[in-house]
Amino acid sequence: MYLQDQGFSYLQIATLMATIQLTKIIAPSVWGWLGDRSGQRVRLVRFGALTGSLFFAGVFLEPGFYGLLLVMLAFTFFWNAVLPLYEVITLRTLGAQKEKYGRVRLWGSVGFIGAVAGVGGILELVPVQFLPWLLLPVFAGIAVSSFLVPSERGEVRERAPSGSLRRIITNPTVVTFFLMNFLLQVSHGPYYTFFSIHLEQHGYGKLPIGLLWSLGVLAEIALFLVMHRFTRRFSVRQIALGALGLSMIRWVLIAELTDEIVVLVFAQLLHAASYGALHAISVQYIQGFFGKHHHGQGQALYSGLTFGAGGALGAWMSGFLVEGFNTSAAFLGGAAALGLAIVITWRGLKPPPGDH
């Protein structure tokens, strides 16, 4: 909505939002490799948080479409250092208690709820053009909090077996895993790019829009709290197929029944499946297949090939669908991507090592 207020077209909005995802294709691999080589992931997180925040300040120059494109490329290249490295730091800290990952990760979801609900309420009182000013304290808080995490001692890195990374990424099950998540993120392109605009077109105000975003993340938190029970009872394949099916239903409901608030609330609760369940099993999947030698690069590939390439393609294609048809068509396109993901997952996904 901020970009729409700045006068950008739907295709320009989609291109700018795709840029955020595009840098995830390269940046996490660079930062993951540096983290694996140096063992100084906490220091890299601090550097990424500080430098990314400085580049974000370019938004205040109101540089126009191409200037903003460059600002977002620079900002997100460093910003994308933070989350993949933190995932590895978290899992290494948990050690054998990896099933507790969800209880740690849920705090990111709590922060997201505070942001979208709080900002949604504030934007009912002030124009949306003030959004970048509301983000400044958040960036400052992230930079400061990164210095509260204890620094890692330099690891003595064992030499990885020759050619082992290539063997991992060419494993048919790993290829299926990445294809599944790539298509999942393609389907999320319309959601992250046009959900707020879609709701606004159907008469929802900024506060209800913020609360609906929050509701989705509340469902995600609830899922993270009980995810360990699902992983004990069901296989990775069963959880993945169930979550993909529910996600497809979610996009159809948002496209066709937006005016029905009860249906929309139910669709937002399905965020527990479309993000929470699939992300939780994916993080453990990467740990199982990539092991200690390539964990950072595995996490970076997951971020780059799925959230990066998949998210960018989904955002960009949704721009064409909205420009040519409407926002509902973009969500139906997301549902079609998930139909393909279900077929691929059904045929090729097998459990990671250690999963029974």
From TrEMBL:
GO molecular function: lactose binding; lactose:proton symporter activity
GO cellular component, one term: plasma membrane
Domain Major facilitator superfamily associated: 1-332
Protein's recorded name: Nucleoside:H+ symporter:Major facilitator superfamily
Gene3D superfamilies: MFS general substrate transporter like domains
Membrane topology: Multi-pass membrane protein
Compartments it resides in: Cell inner membrane
Transmembrane segments: 12-32, 44-61, 67-86, 106-124, 130-149, 207-227, 261-281, 301-322, 328-349
Coiled coil: none
Keyword tags: Cell inner membrane, Cell membrane, Membrane, Transmembrane, Transmembrane helix, Transport
